[in-house]
Design brief:
Elements lengths: L1 E6 L4 H13 L3 E3 L2 H7 L4 H8 L3 H8 L1 H10 L3 E5 L12 H12 L3 E4 L10 H5 L4 E2 L10
Helix pairs in contact: 1-2, 3-4, 5-6
Amino acid sequence: MKITICGSSAFKEKMIEYKKLLADLGHEAIVHPDYEAFINGDKQEIWNQVINGEHAEAKKAQGYIKWYYDAICNSDGILVLNFDKKGIKNYIGGNVLMEIGYAHVHDKKIFLLNPIPEEVSYADEIKATYDVVLNGDLNNIKL
C-alpha cells in the first residue's frame, strides 16, 4: 500500500522512523523530502523559519500544503502520526486536519496511529472521517 505520512513538523524524526517501519512491512511510505533534509542538517534556513514563528511563510513559499494534497491524491491512504504535543494527548493540528479532509474526500484510507485527541475543538470532524485507530500497531494497516 502507498501511504503518505502526515503529522506535525515537530514529529519530523518520527516521520522518518515510521517511513522505515512501513517499508519493513512492505508498504511504500511517502514523507516530504524536506523532513529528511532537516534531520540531515540540510535546508536549515527553511527549518529556522518553521521554528522561529514563520511557519506559514515557509509553508507558502515551499508549497507544502499543495505538495501534501498531491501526495495524498496519489496514495492509497494516510498515516497520521499523532503524538503528544503542546500538552495535548495525541495532537492533531490544523494542517493535519486539512490533510485528513483531503484523504476523506478522495476516498483514501485514514489511519490514526493513536486515538483521537479529545481536547481539540475539531474532534468531531476527525471522528467523522477516519477509518482505523491503530493503537500504535502498524500491523493493523489494511486496505
